[in-house]
Design goal:
The chain is mostly helical and about 180 residues long. The protein has 8 helices and no strands.
């Protein structure tokens, strides 16, 4: 149970980062969807039923993108200025080391503060009915959302601390079996 909770928390962190990072593209994506819907609707040679189905699918996608803007606004309003700044800088790609240097504290302190900010953000989304599963169901099939989410995952994993080295890794092989 604990492991699943931690996995869910990590997934929600990536979804929250996606919500923050995707904002700059939402207006353009919505405009493109509007243009597609207009082109489909104005096609005089098209099959009306097929056109209606395409427009409904595009409308649903637009609804989900508009909801992302609403979620962004709700997070921004609900979190304290400090917590929101931490979420934004983490989503923008600032490393723990960079944040620690900027704040003049240890990486551990920054990590704890970031974790608390993301827990607060997750609580806001939970109150709105968005957990990791719903986020995946709603946004996992939208290409832009999927690409931004995956970029957040990759960036976070690249920043992860390397494994702690032992003496064997440093060339001190006395007392260790040959591998």
């Amino acid at each position: 149970k604990f492991f699943m909770t931690e996995v869910q928390n990590e997934m929600m962190k990536f979804w929250i980062m996606m919500i923050v990072r995707i904002q700059r593209w939402l207006t353009r994506a919505e405009e493109q969807l509007d243009a597609k819907m207009t082109n489909i609707a104005l096609d005089p040679a098209g099959d009306t039923l097929a056109q209606a189905e395409k427009i409904n699918a595009l409308s649903d996608r637009k609804r989900r993108l508009v909801n992302l803007a609403v979620l962004y606004h709700r997070l921004e309003c609900a979190l304290s200025a400090d917590a929101w700044a931490r979420v934004e800088t983490c989503a923008a790609g600032e490393t723990l080391a960079e944040a620690a240097a900027r704040e003049g504290v240890s990486r551990t302190t920054v990590f704890r503060r970031q974790r608390m900010a993301f827990k607060k953000a997750q609580a806001v989304l939970d109150k709105l009915g968005f957990d990791a599963d719903r986020m995946r169901d709603e946004y996992g099939s939208i290409g832009l959302c999927k690409r931004v989410y995956n970029a957040c995952v990759v960036r976070e994993r690249e920043q992860a601390a390397p494994p702690v080295m032992c003496r064997k890794d440093l060339g001190e092989t006395e007392g260790y079996a040959a591998v």
